[in-house]
Each structure stands twice: as structure tokens, then as C-alpha cells.
UniProtKB/TrEMBL annotation:
Residues 29-89 form the HTH tetR-type domain. Keywords: DNA-binding. Residues 52-71 bind DNA. It comes from Tianweitania sediminis. It holds the Pfam family TetR_N. InterPro entries: DNA-bd_HTH_TetR-type_CS, Homeodomain-like_sf, HTH-type_Tx_Regulator, HTH_TetR. GO terms for molecular function: DNA binding. It comes from the Bacteria. This is TetR/AcrR family transcriptional regulator. The keyword Protease does not apply. Residues 1-27 are annotated as: Disordered.
Amino acid sequence: MAIRRELETPKGLQRRRRTPSPAQVQRNIETRQKLIEAAAHVVGEHGYAGCSISRVTARAGVAHGAFYLHFKSQQDLFDVLLPEVSLGMLAAIAQAVRGAETLEDMERRGITANIDYLVKNPFAYRAMYEASHYAPKAFARHNEIIMQGYTRSFRRLLGDKAPDQSQIDELTAILVGARAYLYMRFSENGAEMKPLDPDLLDRYVSFVSAGMSEVLGVDAKARYQAFETARTKTG
């Protein structure tokens, strides 16, 4: 009669997970970034609905199974895609509006930098404007970052004349919505983006400037003491 023997690991000798080397950590970071960049381009070509894991791994040149070392699921990837994709765009917009002297100047600089980035990186447009349906968490985070940018700009330019946070939230929603439809109607060109017509851009900025002046009770073309003070401190 065979004797069944139980093999037990002696106490204190339990197998421990090996700490990855710095080189392995760097490779993992690079692979994850490859997957994100590949997903952005697949979404740009096929939309979120057509962004399968197999398409992403094929474009990234990564084994299918390696995907799951970095993301639990397709949705897990979608939930981080937009914030990653929009980093460059939001940085370009922030840099552009940093030198704005008036509300009108702020909006002109912002929309110009926005459309310039989308023309150069057309995949980012589809990643943004399909995200509300396919990646609501990522879309909410993206909008939160935009809101923070507008809040900083309003307060920097207007000081104590700046609207309260609820008004900033409302104005930001209006401005972002107006831009989105403007792009959809006049800049979409299949899978590519084209610049806005300069005359249309002027009309948009004039319309928005007049609206902000009326709603906020300020002159959107004027420089206020808050801006002059901020410039003096940083000059």
C-alpha cells in the first residue's frame, strides 16, 4: 500500500516573489507605453468599438498574453487611455494660454493650440469624443483637468472679479461643448483633422468674447489689475 506523503514548505522558507531588476522595470514601463500608444492609434482608425486587444498587441508588437501583465481587461485600458493621450494636448494648451493677457486672448490661444495639436495628432480627437460612451471614467477625469485649467486662467486674469466655481464650471461646459461641435462640423476630414478657417475662428472668438463679457459683467478684451500684478511678480 502506497504511503501518501504531504510535502510542506518549512516555516520561514515560503517562496517569495522575486523583485524585478531595474532593467525589467524599465522594460515593463516601455511595454505598457507601447500598448497605450498602439491603442490610441487603433481607436483613431477603428474607434473604441473596433479597438480589440488583438489589434492593440499586433500594432504594439507585443505578445497577446503580455497585455494582461499590464491591464486586467480591454476596459481597464480604455479607462487610462484618454488621460494618457491628452497629456500632450493639455500641456500645449496650458503653455499657450499662460501668456494670455485678456479673456479673449485666452480663448483664442486655447482653441488655436487645441486644433493645432489635433491636426498633428488626429487619433487624439476620436479618443476624446468617443470616450464619454466607452470610457466614462477617463472622460470625467479629462474634463476635470480642463476645468482646473480654466479655473486657473479665470483667476489669474480677473483676480477678485473672477466668477465663482459654479459659474466657471458652467462656462467651461459651454466653451468645451462649443469647441467640440465646431471641430465636428468644420474640422473633421475623415480620419484626419484640418485647421479651422481663420475667419470662422475670428467669429468664434468674437462670439465667445461677447458672451463672457455679458455673463461675467467684465470686458473680455480688457487687462485687469490681477493680470498686471501677476506679470509684475513674474517679470
